[in-house]
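Ticket #4471: structure export looks truncated?
Reporter: QA, pipeline team
Priority: medium

Steps to reproduce: submit the single chain below to the structure queue and open the exported record.
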Amino acid sequence: MGNFALELLFQIIGIGSASGLFYKDNTLLLIGDNSGFLYEYHLDSSDLKQYPLIENATANIPKSIKPDFESITHFQDTLYIFGSGSTAKRNTMVEFDLNQKKKIATNNLVDLYAVMQSFGNIKPEDFNLEGAVYDGENWYLFNRGNGVGNRNVLFTLHAKKLSDEFSLLSNNYKLPKIKGVRSTFTDAVLLNDKLYFLATAEDTKSTYTDGEVLGSLIGRIDLETMKIDFTKKITSTHKFEGITVFSSSTKQIEFLLCEDKDTDELKTDIYKLTLDLK
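Actual output as written to the record:
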């Protein structure tokens, strides 16, 4: 893997604690882990719209009751937005229609999450999904290993719908340390049969309590071998929790990243990460 460049591209006022994003047709769709809305931001006009994902949605939900939307993925005209599963109140998956611009289904994944915990040998207090990818046939769900067990696990569910019967695989990963702290999955995106993932080192042993941010890295998993091709540290200060493809060629990929600052301030910085391919 070649050189990289990281730059602050723009700032969005009205969104806090951004945890996931999806780019299409010069528009960004974003979620925040303490928000009950899906946000739509138009890059040309800077126009910001919001769509409720839960009843009585607000932009700053108290930590003890928030749905903790941490992952966003899409297939065709549907977005899938996942709660982290890190508490009993965080087991929701919302389906959102991009054409109708509205929520079309709400799913309780408590039973699925319990199966995943048992299959992956993850204790409930170590379960914390922060990345999701769907390709129409397989769901790739990333458990962030920021609990005591440090279980960075990639689950692969083969099913068109999560309510269908499925086959389940899991792969465990030991990610690099940053300043002596093991990094943990925070998001991923699929491009050309490769999963590009983000991981952050945060000085905490809890899926619930935040800690000092020590840096973030990008890496890539080959879907054929399920092995990590490379990892590269991209910052010593930012906690990047969302990644989407901005543009790509045979020589270079541009990603958009969002940062979770773990505050109630309704302000989100969007970064562009340019990665040269060898």
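Status: closed, not a bug. The export was complete when the record was re-opened. Leaving a note from the reviewer for reference: Helices lie at 110-119.
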